[in-house]
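Lecture 7 notes: from sequence to structure.

We start with a single chain of 121 residues. Read the sequence below before looking at the structure.
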Amino acid sequence: MRENEMLEKEDIFSKVLRAGRRTYFFDVRATKADDYYITITESKKFTEEDGSFHFKKHKIYLYKEDFAAFAEILNDMTSYVLNHKGEEVISERHQKDFKREDRDSESETTRSYTDIEFDDI
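Now the structure, written as tokens:
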């Protein structure tokens, strides 16, 4: 048995946040010494053209000695975003099926580029 598997063998308390294609798992786990820590796992679903799908997962281990600083920085970061950008979600426009409302989109997306050779850089 790998060390990570031994560390994560016991879930003490869990919560799940489903957010579109992403799911966040918050788990309290116990070490072999019966101390607690938190894992935060992001699982994102990707669908292939043939209809099959797979998940990519990313995990953060958060230990008690870091809780206060982590919570403070997370609060600072979320407050900053909400204060500067509000609560409106604008990320939908970056999804494949987003349809822009009828605006003067040509003037917004027209750009001019100059041909530059690699040797000129």
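The first strand starts at residue 11 and ends at 19. Keep this in mind for problem set 3.
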